[in-house]
Amino acid sequence: MSPRVPGRVPFGARLAAAMDDLGPLCVGIDPHGPLLADWGLPDDATGVREFGLRVVDALGGRVAAFKPQAAFFERHGSRGLAALEEVLAAAQAAGTLTIVDAKRGDIGSTMAGYADAFLADGSPLAGDAVTLSPYLGFGALSPALDTAAATGRGVFVLCLTSNPEGAAVQHAVGADGRSTAASVAAQAAACNEGAAPLGSVGLVVGATVGGAARSTGTDLEAVNGPLLAPGVGAQGAGEQELTDVFGAARRNVLASSSRGVLAAGPEAVGLLRAAERSVAEVRSALRPR
């Protein structure tokens, strides 16, 4: 990674402070069709815009981070992307960190283009961090890693996901005897070497993957970066599951909840109460033993 620009507080440090202050909860902003209908909103660009802005208005400054899922905005074309830009701007104005869940991954100039879109200063699609896919090779992510370091932003790289198809790639063992997941984690750790209190290169590790980290030899504690954990709440991950998945690394976990909070909408008071319950639950589940 390129050295960061002097004077810019790295994403990892900003996220660590937000987690300490507000709790280790990231609220997903997932305006899919059925949820929009439940909220009485149309399944179009105006609906996803209203949905996202309502979530930010209710929870901005109350949770550590938001994670808008880019796909639910992109499916409405240019107006959907404009809505995503507004949601990101509103979250920034509210002082809440954003992780754009875009899962981008490519090579060369194409990866550089994604880096410019989601991590460069001045881009309206740039949040505080973005999710990335490493399956064209971790090294292919260099343009994004370099841009994130230069702008004080962060990345979350897919490592161990909960979808059943993921294991065929992530658990596979290479010629060096190391699993793909272990290799991804080790390369993320190298990016974070010497960072304190938390590096800015994180991993996505599903909260329901059980003992996958142990069975694949993936050292999550050594990563020294945030571990974004989808699957908390509605998908069933509680204290036992989080302890099983993350072990001693759970102090770096940013638990992500979407349905568990969003189902309590559309009223702001319902969203806030659901978020407060989720914060209390993940604080308890992730506390040091």
Tell me what the structure shows:
The protein has one domain (11-283): Aldolase class I (TIM Barrel), CATH 3.20.20. It is globular, with a radius of gyration of 18 Å. The chain is built from 13 helices and 8 strands. Helices cover 45% and strands 15% of the residues. The two termini are 34 Å apart. An 8-stranded parallel beta barrel has the order 1-2-3-4-5-6-7-8, surrounded by 7 helices. The mean pLDDT is 94. It has 289 residues and is an alpha/beta fold.
Mean pLDDT: 94
CATH superfamily: Aldolase class I
3D shape: globular
**Helix and strand composition category:** alpha/beta
How many E strands?
Answer: 8
Just name the CATH architecture.
Alpha-Beta Barrel
In CATH, what is the class?
Alpha Beta
Integer-rounded radius of gyration: 18 Å
Q: What's the SSE pattern? A: HEHHEHHEHEHEHHEHEHEHH
Instruction: Report the end-to-end length measured between terminal Cα atoms.
Output: 34 Å
Query: Share of helix among residues?
Result: 40-55%
- How many structural units, i.e. domains? 1
Count the DSSP helices: 13
Order of strands in the sheet with the most strands?
1-2-3-4-5-6-7-8
Uncertain segments of ≥5 residues (pLDDT<50)? none
Q: Main β-sheet: number of strands, strand sense, barrel status?
A: 8 strands, parallel, barrel
Instruction: Classify the beta-strand content into a percent band.
Output: 5-15%
CATH topology, anyone? Answer: TIM Barrel
